[in-house]
Amino acid sequence: MQSHQLGSIVPVSGAHTNRRLTRRQKAAIVVRYLLNQGANVPLTELPDSLQEVLTTQMGSMRYVDRETLADVVAEFAEEIEGTGLTFPRGVAGALTALDGKISPQTALRLRKEAGVRQFGDPWSQVCEAEAEALKNILMSESAEVAAILLSKLSVMKAAELLGGIPGERARRIAYAVSQTSDATPEAVDRIGLALAAQLQGAPQTAFDETPDARVGAILNFSQAAIRDDVLSGLEETDEDFATLVRRAIFTFENIPERINERDVPTISRDVPREDLVTALTAALAAGDALEVAATFLLENHSNRMADALRDEISERGQVSAKDGEIAMTEIINNIRALETNGEIKFILPEEE
Q1: Residue 7 and residue 63 in contact, taking contact as beta carbons nearer than 8 Å
Q2: Could you report the per-residue pLDDT of 192-245, keeping only the tens digit for each?
Q3: Which residues contact residue 123 at a Cβ distance below 8 angstroms, ignoring those fewer than 6 apart?
Q4: pLDDT tens digit string along 284-299?
Q5: Is 78 in contact with 66 (CB distance < 8 Å)?
Q6: Which of the four CATH numbers 1.10.220.30, 1.20.1540.10, 3.40.50.1100, 2.40.37.10 does domain 122-199 have?
Q7: Predicted TM-score of the model (pTM)
Q8: Which CATH number fits domain 250-340: 3.90.550.10, 2.60.40.10, 3.20.20.70, 1.10.220.30?
Q9: Model confidence at 279: pLDDT above 90
Q10: Less Cβ crowding at N or C end of the chain, within 10 Å?
């Protein structure tokens, strides 16, 4: 083979040639050798400038004989064996090495001060996340963000997730996909970084519960008239959020659909008898969903207990709406305490 066919960068002469090679050329030889051996070389962790230099160097080289290859690999192995300790490059590497060892607040502040990117390719992490976590994003983020996420997923995974959310929400996201044609790579990258941080549990949020759960908890302790008025307003402003809030709310009317029959005696056990009788009396007189809930509670006690309660209800007479609502709230508070302590479990409402 003629010398011009071998390329002018690496002549074929073994040890003498090895001494004349630059470090870039040696690095290219080692990387090429490792790739040929099937090794997973994490080149993406290198700065973009070094990736560019390495790629250009490999593209300019043509042939290396066995003796030169052996010398370069041996030299590389000697350097590795002689290394006692290495430190990560820059703040980004140090933060990665200290992940979990320093406080999240300190890590976040250092990243901001140094302008350090927290994730390499955020979308690779997002797309590999669990389906349930991605579904939560589709339900909680804006339709525009959800559309970007859906567009980055595989067709099969996107179809599966879209089929698992309420129809109105799915239609809104699908429409938002049609508005993503002008999305810039920078904007998509920023969204990916935000979602990756969210999936990794960073940054920390001020609240442990979701917005719908917080609003639902507040409305649980509100008067029925106020609760209905707030829900009506939410439906006019954001129907999707209103649906989530309704699922988070647990009121007396929800007892038959959210409580297991076997848990009814446990619920009644810790409620003062007077409050239980007052609540049942008011609910039976109110009719509709309240009456259904009261009947459910009575029918799932023992016959003896149910008969005793019915006798006390008939003797109780008329109950004011205010007293009835206070007594029902007492029962609901007791149910929520039992559920929090793990003594009972709610039946999850079916998604529309």
Answers
A1: yes
A2: 888 887 776 644 556 667 788 888 878 877 777 788 888 888 888 888 888 888
A3: 152, 188, 192, 196
A4: 998 888 999 999 999 9
A5: no
A6: 1.10.220.30
A7: 0.41
A8: 1.10.220.30
A9: yes
A10: N
